[in-house]
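Budget justification, computational time. The allocation requested in the original proposal was used primarily to generate structure tokens for proteins on the priority list. As evidence of use, we reproduce two of the resulting records. The first is shown immediately below.
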Amino acid sequence: MLTAFTAGLLLITVSELGDKTFFIAVILAMHHSRRLVFIGVTAALAAMTILSVLLGQTAALLPKVYIYYAEIALFIAFGIKLLYQARKMPAACDTEVVEEAKAAVEQADLQLPKRKTAASILTEAFVLTFMAEWGDRTQIATIALAAGNNPIGVTMGAILGHAICAAIAVIGGKMIAGRISERQLTFVGGCLFLIFGVVAAIEGA
């Protein structure tokens, strides 16, 4: 369980910092109650984590040999992809990701009443985050981790990692958003995925 917890925590924390969901939380926290935004964002990420773990446990019903090679292939492929993306990225914060987050928040604001209640803010934060996270690399990584590791450990580690990133976003996101190096974070994430791929290969051998 400890190994699964650590893997989930490291993988999510590194992958989520500077991600689209991170900037959605930053932008929302600049206009609304940080406490409400944190609750909504964290709830969405926790729900996505639980769903991903359940999908991973469903995949675990397949023959072990398929899971073994699929897990290795996923981690290695994501690692190589992230390293390639890091090489092509500018050294500064990826403005494209920030613009996508701004556009998502602005579109959601248009569909809500001008005078927002606590419930509407929570709903906006939850829905925007959940939709942005769907199909993201962290979701697929969580599924892969849960398929071959302790599901409770993966769930706890991933949720804690998401909560840490959400807290950073809503508390100090405005100050550090322009200083985040998406390139460096993507490079570290790529290395981490490769390491998990190698570990999965060794443990399953």
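The second record produced under the same allocation is shown here.
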Amino acid sequence: MSFENHCFCELAPLYVLDLLSESERLSVEQQLAECPELADELAQYETAATAIPYSAPVVPMAENLKDRLFARLELEPLESLPSPTPSFDNILFPYLTVRSQDVQWQPQPIPGVEIAIFHTDLIKREIVGLFRAAPGMYYPMHRHAAIEEIYMLTGDLVVGDEVYGAGDYIRSQPGSVHGPHTIGGCMFFFRTSMDDEYGDFASAEGQGNFRF
């Protein structure tokens, strides 16, 4: 099937689902480079694709599924595991608190940037914490692997053509790309993915423990 005469709106969904050939994929990326406005349209398709698995109806699991699986693998069935018991720590500490005087700021490879991580969820692949930047800080261009949320506490943050200040909430969609900076310095609360892509959009793994 030839895609030479197809418009971006026809190719974008296939691009998001990774169903295009290498040449077709490069063609879409070239259109994005020539017309940055198309990035918003592509982000909408990526958001829709992310929701596809959650739109499928829930199918009840067959009662003998485990036995059939073990039989196919020619394995002996495992004994039923006991129900998990509440963690002792969870009983004593039903919630986590961090006092302002106990916030542990960690310097980052980016000059003028410090973060304080409050929570890391390895299942959801996300981290939650505080981000603090000195005046004039420019953050590297990066692409979001999942939804990112920011709540501004102090200072200013420039994202694209918009300047955000204390009390502003910023939500970036999966696939969105930006490289924000601050004029007078800032601090904000964030929740973001551990798998955001930086620079040449290679995997962020191994690029340091900073995330934004």
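A brief technical remark on that second record: The helical segments are 8-16, 22-34, 38-55, 65-72, 88-92.
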